[in-house]
Amino acid sequence: MSASETHLPERLHGLDALRGGALLLGVVLHASLSFFPQQIWIVADDSRSIGAAGLFFAIHLFRMTAFFLIAGLFAHMMLARKGWFGFAKDRAVRITGPLLAFWFPVMAGIVTALVWNAHANGLVTPGAPPPPPPTYDWTNIPLTHLWFLYVLSLFCIVALILRAPFAALDRNGGWGRLVDRLTGALIGWWTPFLLAAPLALAFWLDPKWIAFFAVPTPDAGLIPHTAALVGFGLAFALGFLLDRRRDLLTRLAGWWPVYLILAVVSGVWSYVLAGGPSLTPMTEPTQAKAIAAAVVAIAVFSSALAAVGLCLRFLSGHSPMRRYLADASYWVYILHLPLVMLAQVWVQNWAGPWWLKLAGVSLGVFAVCLISYELTVRHGFMGKWLNGRRIPWRRPAPAAAIPAE
């Protein structure tokens, strides 16, 4: 049996946990923005600290890159199981569908938070005419935090387009075996360096690149940033190929100490080269920018691979709690941003240290999202829509045995 035909039968609980954790960390990531030492977010809290910026940087460095790697692996698994038509239908329903369905409610919640914040900070003059609404087109339409659904939809379309001629030409499996061997050669201590090379080039060529934000978030416009397409696209492609070689996941798990050490060293170095939470772009392709681009790119992939390796190594067993949170994470992520912004406006003038207010905002939003998930999503049609399965309120009890007469 070829490597491309080998699939482990059991569920990959470690990757489930990482997928859920990456989405749930989005709540903490966005909640931290109002506590930055300088104002970069619409809400600026009275209590601010460089610690909030450091927390944001650490989470942002690996989170979505790891998510897209897992998304690529699950995409290939589903494509192999359902075929191209079933795969396209599933992705349209569960990825593109929520983007279209929830974009307007999410935007309405964000606008509500913006209006409340403007009134709370005296930015609205009573009786004065409202400012003109912004003008949007395909170049700047706000995708909000739902941008990942848009980009993931694009990657799935590209995967279908590229796979079709490959499958047609590879009737005897020769090309597939070659791809599997190349994938095996890619995985080792050197993997972050190989993946970082094209991403570093994209950083270096981008005159708007801000080192502190690493891979830029493509949250506005229908054409994502080149660096985002390269960084997240490489992660998706690696995951897609790894599903053909599930045996390589064990190798990734074995290299986690090396990836983690590399992530810490390159991550700290990246933060220093970025100048901390600096919003100044590196416009000129200088030698200093080349060094920063290389170090940040290595930090992005080493931290993502460290997260993957750690979860495969230590979270590979079944856990009902982790499975529940992994299932809930999709709904939590869709719902959370307007709630985070509303909570930030509410607490911005409260007395107290930043970390306590950050914890309060994050835990409060988690509570609202998880309660709404349990009551309105998990056990109904939305659970089937978002997670592919609906969990009954009560599992049917096993039938009692009927004694023989």
Automatic annotation (TrEMBL):
Transmembrane segments: 21-44, 50-74, 95-116, 147-166, 186-205, 225-242, 254-272, 292-316, 328-348, 354-375
InterPro entries (UniProt xref): Acyl_transf_3_dom (IPR002656), Glucan_succinyl_AcylTrfase (IPR050623)
Domain Acyltransferase: 13-373
A family per Pfam: Acyl_transf_3
GO molecular function: acyltransferase activity
Top-level taxon: Bacteria
Transmembrane helix in keyword set: yes
Protein name: Acyltransferase family protein
